[in-house]
Design a protein that fits this description.
This protein has 680 residues and is an alpha+beta fold. Among the domains are: 265 residues, Beta-galactosidase, Chain A, domain 5; 205 residues, TIM Barrel. 16% of the residues lie in helices and 35% in strands. The protein is built from 13 helices and 38 strands. Strands 6, 7, 8, 9, 12, 13, 15, 16, 20 and 21 form a ten-stranded antiparallel β-sheet that branches. A seven-stranded parallel β-sheet has the order 29-28-25-24-23-22-30. A hairpin with a 4-residue loop joins strand 17 and strand 18. Helix 7 runs parallel beside helix 8. It is globular.
Length: 680
């Protein structure tokens, strides 16, 4: 009888078991075939990635180790594979664009070992045109129910690491994610937070991060041998990395890949690797713009604590609400309203009371006044890292806010890295990291509890964004990088290149509440170059388009806006929710330009900014709708503008344009341009 031969690829596609001798390497390609992932089981499971024929990730280990039982590593072989394809669109309730395309090829690889055939581990790979994601999936097995992970073996290995340029911030430091970015070769990196972005000698741009971080420790990257970056999970106070039980799935390890810097900015990979909305109807989640009792404390005009300079008073809040209503803002943030701010609040987090206000703040009076004006109070909960104290009060705190019509709450976790205070079930004080598994779960707990009261959360001193806004759309924004407040008292403040690095690093993970819009650069005098924004006024306007957030703050004091209403008009006009967003041009740390179209509208907006170098950008307007005419309302640096001594020189002009036109835009040192294209 003639023997029938079944091609190997048929077995792969069908997901059938393979003789281990045949299953040394399997491959997965992106839909456009530019990216290829090769999974190999020689000695230890590993993978590598190529892009346009060039190597991006050299052979790198996969696996994890457990405390009480064998882990997943040496000796495991590929025993079966299964493939799948997806090409579908889905909608964001709010975001950089309304419709997201999820187009990927998938490969589920099962590994087993002759030592114990019942021991099986799966790694699911997805290849998109803009990168790769993979995660570990561990099913319930005999002897593997309660699990303590003591190491994740995942590597990201690079060739010629000394010739690759990286933009990164240190991990496991006292200041969490709030560092100035370093620009070095990859070999000089120690322990780095993600997103970790680098440029290979070939010009290929890559960013390593993670998606769907739930009930797991955050991944940082630690360099072992030169060019060999290893997953370094943030531990619990007892040294364990992850405490879980089977079945469990890890977060996705993500590698975004592009031929240039701009391609990274146009990627939706992180969102596509998260689960769909779990909250149901989220029409109560409201993008918008706000002002607040905030900047005055940072420049020492007011205090968070009670006393003569107390900022969060009934009268001051009403004044801000009147200003917000006059100029079309949705909300007023009020910090320092509740008991606990007096004295050393940084170290006295257990004193915070989230339902009792100071005597000079009447929450019922201010929220009623706001309701009559069409302006909501934006709540504030600062924990100072005392999370057990906060968790115990969350039900009553959110119920109080819901009663008074508060729809958004800014939460804060100001504490040094590694100094989060929790009290365990034996009453013992434990100190945890902001990005360890305990806090990953604590942040999400606050979000899901808030959703029960139709409240959205804007987390400061957060866990990094990993796309969970898709699954929990009320997680509307977060901080997670050096924001505007460092320009008030930071030593040093954010340098001119900071806003030209953020889009390619921190912003790849999701929206940031940067709080732009400072109009008075001279609150310490223009001669003070240390404690002031190192930008021009036009660059402050450009931030509203470049640094995406669905809730943008006009961060300065009302009097500074009323002193410059022509420039303030752009902040009043610019939306925070978009139909489409397109990165037009840029190089990491040098400059960036974005165009965005308003959600369910006709107008487009453009923002561009530069580092300490003045430059001229010529941008094609082919993103505009074909066949339409627009009035370009341009806010740009003046001829003599430069950030150090002449930041206010700005030209406001109008031009008639269409998609066939281009604009040549001069940017001053640390300058920018903001444009509204008003459809005619």
């Amino acid at each position: 009888m003639k023997r029938s031969l079944v091609p190997l690829f048929v077995l792969l596609t069908a997901g059938l078991s393979l003789p281990q001798a045949l299953a040394k390497t399997v491959e997965l390609s992106s839909p456009d075939n530019t990216i290829t992932v090769s999974i190999n089981d020689d000695k230890q499971p590993n993978y590598q990635i190529t892009f346009n024929g060039g190597t991006v990730i050299t052979p790198s280990k996969l696996g994890m180790l457990f405390k009480e039982t064998h882990g997943f590593g040496e000796g495991f072989k590929i025993s079966s594979v299964a493939r799948n394809q997806v090409n579908a669109n889905w909608e964001l309730p709010w975001g950089e664009r309304k419709t997201v395309n999820d187009h990927h090829n998938e490969l589920l690889v099962t590994f087993s070992t002759e030592r114990d055939e019942a021991s099986r581990y799966q790694v699911r790979f997805r290849a998109f045109n803009d990168g790769v994601g993979f995660r570990y999936e561990v099913s319930k097995q005999s002897g593997l129910e309660q699990v303590e992970i003591i190491d994740e073996l995942t590597e990201f290995s690079l060739e010629n690491a000394k010739e690759a340029t990286a933009w990164w911030i240190p991990a496991r430091g006292w200041n969490r994610y709030e560092y100035i970015y370093d620009t070095t070769d990859v070999e000089s990196v120690g322990n780095a937070h993600t997103p970790f972005t680098f440029k290979l000698p070939s010009g290929t741009h890559v960013s390593i991060h993670e998606a769907a971080l739930v009930d797991y420790a955050a991944m940082t990257l630690k360099q072992h041998r030169p060019g060999k970056l290893k997953a370094d999970l943030t531990p619990w106070s007892d040294g364990t990395l992850v405490k879980t039980q089977t079945d469990f799935k890890t977060p996705w390890r993500t590698i975004q890949i592009s031929k240039d810097a701009v391609g990274l900015l146009n990627s939706d990979l992180i969102l596509n690797l998260n689960e769909p909305n779990k909250l149901g109807d989220v029409s109560w989640v409201e993008p918008g713009k706000y002002v607040g009792i905030w900047w005055g404390m940072h420049i020492a005009e007011n205090t968070w604590g009670s006393g003569e300079k107390h900022g969060a008073t009934t009268s001051e809040t009403i004044r801000y609400m009147d200003f917000a209503a006059k100029h079309g803002f949705d909300g007023v943030l009020v910090e320092g309203w509740n008991i606990g701010w007096d004295g050393d609040w940084f170290n006295n987090g257990d004193l915070f009371n989230f339902t009792q206000g100071y005597d000079d703040f009447d929450i019922e009076k201010v929220t009623k006044h706001g309701a009559n004006k069409g302006v909501r109070l934006i709540g504030h909960h600062e924990t100072s890292g005392s999370v057990t104290n906060y968790r115990d009060q969350i039900p009553d705190a959110f119920a109080l806010y819901e009663k008074h019509g508060v729809r958004q709450v800014k939460t804060g976790y100001v504490a040094d890295g590694g100094d989060i205070k929790r009290i365990d079930d034996k009453g013992i004080v434990r100190k945890e990291w902001h990005d360890g598994q305990f806090m990953v779960n604590e942040y999400l707990h606050s979000v899901t509890e808030a959703a029960k009261h139709k409240i959205s959360i804007n987390t400061h001193e957060p866990i990094k964004a990993t796309g969970l806004r898709r699954t929990y759309p009320n997680w509307i924004a977060r901080e997670g990088a050096r924001g505007q407040e460092y320009n008030a008292w930071g030593t040093p403040p954010n340098p001119p290149e900071h806003a030209a690095i953020l889009p390619y690093t921190r912003m790849l993970s999701g929206p940031m509440d940067f709080t732009p819009g400072i109009f008075d650069m001279g609150f310490n005098g223009l001669g003070d170059k240390t404690n002031r924004p190192q930008t021009t006024l036009a660059k402050q306007l450009a931030l509203y388009v470049v640094l995406y957030s669905p809730i943008q703050m006009a961060a300065d004091l009302p009097r500074n806006y009323e002193a410059n209403l022509p420039a303030f008009q752009f902040i009043k006009d610019v939306p925070t929710d978009w139909q489409e967003s397109i990165a037009l041009a840029g190089e990491i740390g040098d400059y960036v330009a974005f165009a965005r179209k308003e959600r369910e509208g006709n107008d487009w907006y453009l923002g561009a900014l530069t580092d300490e170098n003045a430059r001229e950008l010529t941008l094609e307007l082919d993103f505009l709708d074909k066949g339409k005419r627009y009035e370009a309302q341009i806010y740009r640096d003046g001829k003599d503008a430069e950030w150090a001594d002449n930041p206010y020189d700005m030209i406001i002009e109008q031009k008639k344009v269409s998609a066939k036109d281009s604009l040549t835009l001069p940017l001053a040192t640390s300058g920018g341009v903001a444009i509204r294209f008003k459809a005619l």
